[in-house]
Design goal:
- By secondary structure, this protein is an alpha/beta fold.
- The protein has three domains: 64 residues, PUA domain (Archaeosine Trna-guanine Transglycosylase, Chain: A, domain 4, Roll), CATH 2.30.130; 108 residues, RNA methyltransferase domain (HRMD) like (Transcription Regulator spoIIAA); 191 residues, Rossmann fold (3-Layer(aba) Sandwich), CATH 3.40.50.150.
- 28% of the residues lie in helices and 29% in strands.
- It contains ten helices and 20 strands.
- Helix 9 crosses helix 10.
- Bound molecules: S-adenosyl-L-homocysteine.
Length: 395
């Protein structure tokens, strides 16, 4: 195993068990590890600090895995991490109401660059680091042993793969190719998932709890679900007795799947309107038409991909939320989200205060949304916290 020597004075983050080591913190590499190899990180005095995946093409040159030298970091280390992550989700799946969730969430589950989502009998994986790519035969074998899936599909088309010098992949890794539409259940609601063609790995299971909580306020209400995708919030609200739901999304495939999902659940399609449009344009059009709603959901894509994009993104979030607030009846509810890791909850609250002021509205925060337990946040890796939201009462 190759030794990598840390620069003097760069120990702190490593000792705090942050899993990323940037290339600038490396003094030298003793030898020529291949990208994805496991290396040993030593301090300038030669003391062991951690094991990690090496990649000289990435700004994150080392992805730290293990801080205890006596633990052999071989096949079994990976098998154990996979098994622990999978078993920690088992209670989410045991009563049959839900058969989809995230089984492995990258750094938060000590497997940097590996995402595994369960869709009923199929698994969709995303491989975002060269280290995990090398370990995939072992990981696939362990997943097969533990879960006996009908098939495992590699949906590694994330742009972040290019930072590691990896190509985009969209193919079967093991077992059968998933059917075009895989039917899954989440909280007793059925969804058709298009793993190969859908966004991300096909579904946003990170909103499971938040959809449920939002829908508890929808009974008898007129709901507008913006950025609806395949209908997570829409279906929960319809099922919970909303008077009507209007869903807006720009993606034709998402809209088509959403219509199918309404049928799949035998929900009353006469209470449902779908609009394929840009949300910002549509909110303005609805305002011109004098429309008002009781509950409004805003679940946009990531506006701030990095910290440097935060100021611009904050303005976009503010404008969006201002428009949303103006479409609510007095005392109506706004369920608003940000999945930008760079935006923390306090900044998001400020953005909403700013939007309220511009809209001439008073806002109460009545509930704080977060990412669900199958997307844990590791204490030593705050960057893993990305999803936040606020349920606001708007006067
Ligand atoms: N709320 C959804 C997930 C939303 S993901 C759920 O519960 O599953 C974000 C969605 O925003 C995607 O479906 C994407 O197609 C859509 N989108 C992105 N930009 C958009 C825009 N400008 N106008 C409308 N929809 C947009």
């Amino acid at each position: 195993m190759v030794d990598v020597i840390l620069k003097k004075g760069k120990e702190k983050a490593v000792l705090q068990r942050h899993p990323w080591l940037f290339s600038g913190a490396i003094e030298r590499v003793k030898g020529k590890p291949a990208n994805g190899d496991i290396v040993k990180l030593l301090n300038d005095k030669g003391d062991f600090m951690a094991y990690g995946f090496y990649n000289d093409q990435s700004r994150v040159a080392l992805r730290l895995l293990e801080w205890d030298e006596s633990v052999g970091i071989e096949e079994n280390w990976f098998r154990k991490k996979v098994a622990v992550a999978v078993s920690s989700r088992s209670h989410l799946l045991e009563n049959g109401a839900t058969n989809t969730c995230r089984l492995i969430f990258s750094e938060a589950d000590y497997l940097p660059g590996l995402i595994v989502d369960k869709y009923a009998d199929f698994l969709a994986v995303q491989v975002l680091t060269s280290g995990i790519e090398k370990m995939m035969p072992v990981i696939i074998d362990e997943l097969q042993k533990l879960l006996k899936p009908k098939g495992i599909f590699d949906k590694s088309d994330a742009s972040s793969r290019s930072h590691e010098g990896l190509e985009t992949i969209n193919q079967v890794l093991a077992g059968a190719h998933p059917p075009e539409i895989v039917k899954v259940m989440e909280n007793n609601i059925a969804y058709g998932i298009n793993i190969a063609e859908g966004q991300k790995s096909g579904f946003y299971c990170d909103q499971r709890d938040n959809r449920h909580i939002t829908a508890m306020h929808a009974k008898g209400k007129k709901v507008l679900d913006c950025f609806s995708y395949t209908g997570g919030f829409t279906l929960n609200c319809l099922k919970n007795g909303a008077a009507s739901v209007t869903s807006v999304d720009s993606s034709a495939l998402a809209i088509e799947t959403l219509k199918g999902n309404v049928k799949l659940n035998n929900l009353d399609a006469s209470k449902h309107t779908v609009i394929q449009s840009d949300v910002n344009k549509q909110l303005r059009a609805l305002r011109e038409q004098g429309e008002k709603f009781d509950v409004l959901v805003l679940d946009p894509p990531k506006y701030a991909p990095s910290r440097s994009a935060l100021a611009k993104a904050s303005r976009a979030y503010k404008d969006l939320n201002r428009l949303g607030m103006l479409l609510l009846n007095n005392g109506g509810l706004l369920a608003t989200f940000s999945c930008s890791g760079a935006m923390d909850i306090d900044t998001f609250k400020q953005v909403l205060a700013w939007a309220a002021l511009d809209a001439g509205k008073e806002v109460q925060f009545i509930y704080q949304f977060c990412q669900p337990e199958d997307h844990p946040v590791r204490a030593s890796f705050p960057e893993g916290e990305y999803l936040k939201g606020l349920l606001c009462r708007v006067y």
